[in-house]
Amino acid sequence: MISKNKKINDAVWRAINRTINKFREHPYYFFTESDIHSYFYHALYSTKHEVSTIDKKRIYCIHREYPTNFRYKKKELLDNTISKPYDLKDK
Q1: Which domain holds residue 2?
Q2: Which of 35, 54, 55, 69 fits a disulfide with 30 by CB distance 3.0 to 4.6 angstroms?
Q3: Which uninterrupted H or E stretch holds 60?
Q4: Pick from 68, 50, 59, 67: nearest CA to 86
């Protein structure tokens, strides 16, 4: 069985390759760097990396941006004793 980390890693590399290929085939589709970011996110988002919370709500594991430093402290994010925003089911 393939680990979830490997699946996500493979999906990221597929999205990178898909974005590069699209840019090479149609460079004028992309006017700004943000357009490239958006296409990459679209390519990655279409891979369906959803999980269920303990209370059966679906959330998506991949985000274009994560909270800024004023909201969370990196040290606290790595501390397993602090409660997380979502309780995820073990799969």
Answers
A1: 1-48
A2: 35
A3: strand 58-60
A4: 59
Residue 51: CB atoms within 10 A of its CB come to 14
pLDDT 10s digit of each residue in the chain, 91 long? 677 778 878 888 999 999 999 999 999 999 999 999 999 988 988 777 777 778 888 877 777 776 666 666 667 666 666 555 555 555 4
How many domains are there within the chain? 2
- Type of residue found at 57: K
Tell me how far apart the alpha carbons of residues 32 and 16 are, in angstroms, rounded to a whole number. Answer: 17
Residue with tokens 């303990």: 54
On whether the CB atoms of residues 29 and 35 are closer than 8 A, the answer is: yes
The model scores a pTM over 0.70: no
